[in-house]
Amino acid sequence: MTAMRTAEPAAAFDGVVLAGGRSSRMGTDKAALPWRGRPLLQHMRGLLEQAGAQRVLACGPDPDAQSLPDLQPGLGPLGGLLTLTQTQADGRYLVVPVDMPLLTTGLLRRLAGALADAEEISCAMFAGHVLPLCLRLDETTRAAIGELAGQAPRMRSLHALHARLRSMELAVADDERRCLANCNTPEEWEEVQP
């Protein structure tokens, strides 16, 4: 289902930054890259706070007290979500990758708001993008993430998770697409510099 949403989030949610990857294509830790005077991880945490997250967690080796090291390393983004299912209470979680510095609070609020009115939906994301996402953590999503984590590597993707859950895709305007750019390589990082 694809929808255009503009609503502000109506219910409480927590933020999660996925920062547990090896950054092998970048050649250096993406979370520590400088973005506008501070490490990229801090920038992404700040975006989630500005979007209205009650608290912000980082999945990965962040020295901060709000860090959740992957309990099962090597699973990619699904590993961060698996750790979330094993350590956190039910609720809504707005999940962003550490390597998407052009995200805006407006886009994040729209994404968080998508689940507020749709109890039957487990996951919301932007059309054509597996991240960021807003996840309703409950028994259904815990089971889906746990099952996928046990699959062969080629089967345990966020695409597969979206297919298993009742998901909603939010339309993305042409002028918003650049805000959803991932930076996995030095060349991609160079392209998003101000």
Task: Give a verbal description of the structure.
By secondary structure, the protein is of the alpha/beta class. The chain has one domain (2-179): Spore Coat Polysaccharide Biosynthesis Protein SpsA, Chain A, CATH 3.90.550. Helices cover 29% and strands 19% of the residues. The chain contains six helices and ten strands. The protein has helices at residues 40-51, 77-87, 105-114, 139-149, 158-164, 186-191, and strands at 2-3, 14-18, 34-35, 38-39, 56-59, 67-68, 91-97, 123-126, 133-137, 167-170. It has an eight-stranded mixed sheet with strand order 1-10-8-9-7-2-5-6, with helices on both faces. A two-stranded antiparallel ribbon has the order 3-4. Helix 1 (40-51) packs across helix 3 (105-114) and helix 2 packs across helix 4. The chain is globular.
